[in-house]
Design goal:
This protein is mainly beta. The radius of gyration is 16 Å and the shape is globular. Its main location: secreted. One of its GO terms (biological process) is defense response to bacterium. Belongs to the insect defense protein family. Keywords: Antibiotic, Antimicrobial, Immunity, Innate immunity, Secreted, Signal.
């Protein structure tokens, strides 16, 4: 009986761990659905953007300590809360089509120290925007508060 319960519990955890990226249903709240609460401490990660010119930016998510992260969900959000811009193609991430616009997520649960992606702003976008990231270290350890505000060039 205990073996059956452990097997069923393990299968349930595997089914909701999302090793190939966040599901589209997690777009709005940017919470991974791991059935545990997010960390309340400051995220040990940096989310940065550097202008490449021509409305393009290099966005980097990187660990600020010695630990890897296994997953992430990134959205670029304007002052109205809408997800804006377009992410370029990458070998270690994929875009999600969300009701508010597109977002970016991981494609595997291999440990990462850093992820870089190109992002293009809408031609009409000006002012400040927020880079909003949920970053998953492991199944029960994740942060939803990794935020950086930048002013578009």
């Amino acid at each position: 009986m205990i073996f059956k319960l452990l097997t069923i519990s393990s299968l349930c955890l595997l089914a909701i761990a999302y090793p190939s990226g966040a599901p589209e249903g997690s777009c709005d709240l940017r919470i991974p659905g791991h059935m545990v609460e997010p960390q309340t401490s400051p995220a040990p990660f940096k989310v940065e953007a550097v202008s490449l010119g021509g409305g393009k930016y290099k966005i980097t998510i990187k660990s600020t300590d010695s630990n890897d992260f296994k997953g992430f969900l990134l959205a670029v959000v304007d002052s109205a809360g809408k997800y804006i811009g377009n992410f370029g193609s990458s070998t270690n991430s994929k875009t999600l089509t969300c009701p508010k616009g597109n977002a970016l997520t991981h494609i595997d649960n291999v440990g990462k120290k850093k992820v870089e992606i190109e992002w293009t702003k809408p031609a009409s976008a000006t002012g400040s925007i927020d880079l909003m990231a949920t970053i998953v270290r492991d199944y029960s350890t994740f942060w939803t508060n990794a935020k950086t505000t930048i002013t578009l060039a």
